Amino acid sequence: VGRLVLVLGDQLTETLSALAQADKTRDTVVMAEVADEAAYVRHHPKKIALIFAAIRKFAQALEADGWTVAYTQLDDTENAGSIVGELLRRAAQTGASEVLATEPGEWRLIDKLKDAPLKVHLLPDDRFLASHAEFEAWAEGRKALRMEYFYREMRRKTGLLMDGDQPAGGKWNFDHDNRKAAPDDVTVDGPLRFEPDATTREVLDLVQARFGDNFGDLEPFWFATTRAEALQALDHFIANALPRFGDYQDAMLNENEFLYHAILSPYLNIGLLNVTEICKAAADAYAAGHAPINAAEGFIRQIIGWREYVRGIYFLEGPDYTSRNVLGHDRALPWFYWGGETRMHCVAKAVGQTKTQAYAHHIQRLMVTGNFALLAGIDPAQVHEWYLAVYADAFEWVEAPNTIGMSQFADGGVIASKPYVSSGAYINRMSDHCKSCHYSVSAKTGEKACPFNLLYWHFLDRHRDRFSNNPRMGNMYRTWDRMDADKRKTVLAEGDALLARLDAGEVV
Ligand code: FAD
Ligand code: DLZ
Prior knowledge:
Strand 1 (4-6), helix 1 and strand 2 (28-32) form a beta-alpha-beta unit. By secondary structure, this protein is mainly alpha-helical. It is built from 22 helices and seven strands. It has a five-stranded parallel beta sheet with strand order 3-2-1-4-5, sandwiched between helices. The protein has a two-stranded antiparallel sheet with strand order 6-7. It binds flavin-adenine dinucleotide and ligand DLZ. Flavin-adenine dinucleotide binds next to helix 11, helix 13, helix 15 and helix 17. Ligand DLZ binds next to helix 2 and helix 3. This is Deoxyribodipyrimidine photolyase-related protein. InterPro entries: Crypto/Photolyase_FAD-like_sf, PhrB-like, Rossmann-like_a/b/a_fold, UV-DNA_repair_photolyase. It comes from Sulfitobacter litoralis.
């Protein structure tokens, strides 16, 4: 009797370890659209459609390649509703008692597979550069786990942008050059968009019927859903956007949702593209003189640095990571995160494009929606659930460290050496949002005061014990302490009033 080979919705890679260890002539691949996975958070409809369309097409490709695939659609009457339920059902049908599975990217599902009444062989997910053992060895004995040092190891390991044992361009990190304010003219019209084919159309109908009430617009749906399309999207990015990616990485514009970003994370995270080919394409563009070093280095750092590093942290820190809350924040997530009205133009813009595109770029996630949640003291578990639900690229191994750690400082500084908080001035410097805002970014107090201004000082003041000795925050506290005592009082009182309005559900 053959074995079952589990392929999950974010494991759509031909060379997946479970497939590599399986026997095409005897084993049965199990793939399933199940209610449990589609509903552990209220995923954005575009995210569900991306996964369902891509998983259906991947199954067809495996069949064409000679595999036996037992595929379950969401509406199949026999659908057991969960991954383990589907494995048990297929085991009963085929007589199999063993399962080959590549480790899922979430503790929840790993635990379910471990507890299943079947012999499940959990294989390492070798689509990452650093194995768990390698990351643990790097972390061992270090006082602080800073991304930069891990990243240098990954540069040496891959040889990407290396001149012998030295970094290309003479520096490991060109981040300093990557903070230009928003440009007037953006020379690229976002990512490559794809017309839905018949399979995708069927999926869109299903998702509309079953998940049409979830937050987010299903249509227009333009994501790539096959590896061939994802490769075209990669080529499009390298040719058109990469050269200016570095310069404008942190910029935000009212009339441009994508700027020079890649919009490749959804494809990378479900397995349609791999780390090596993406980074090699960027390194080759630099070598050919097509992209400057600050662009190629900045881009490659996000992937072999940040992406690999956050995954290492997720698995190192363990299943309780998502419930950490060292700052004791407990305010409910405001309704405007789900599309309710807000007068803060930057927030409305970030949430608006999250709703239409299931996408916002890093600075929107970190310095607009994340920054506001942290300043306002929102419960990090609710913030985490929001980010996990609303982005097409959101899977817990990558989303949780970014949200709980980098953005909300709820892990007490495992990832970030200081909280990512800013007043409105930062948003004004990096965007054109403030010009069309109800609030005034230059007003520090009063009715028109930008909420980011009020809450910035409110945050620093209420967390003084924890942060005032942080060497990277000394300047902020000195500025606050130099402020006139009456002014400080007014700022705090207005901050309190703003938070009370938020709690009362009033429009802020
Ligand atoms: P680009 O800006 O073009 O970057 C290129 C690639 O680098 C991305 O495709 C991505 O694979 C990788 N990358 C960049 N930054 C990070 C990072 N901090 N961590 C991991 N990979 C990174 N990224 C996800 O893939 N899934 C998530 O669920 C997710 N949640 C986030 C939540 C918060 C609060 C924050 C602050 C960031 C989150 N990120 C997440 C990281 C980052 O915002 C996205 O990877 C990026 O916006 C994806 O868009 P892009 O492909 O256009 O990226
Ligand atoms: C996110 C997701 C969704 C929406 N649906 C499915 C599904 O029906 N079947 C499936 O195999 N995977 C799905 N996924 C992806 C899983 O939730 C993902 O594999 C785990 O969260 C681990 O990363």
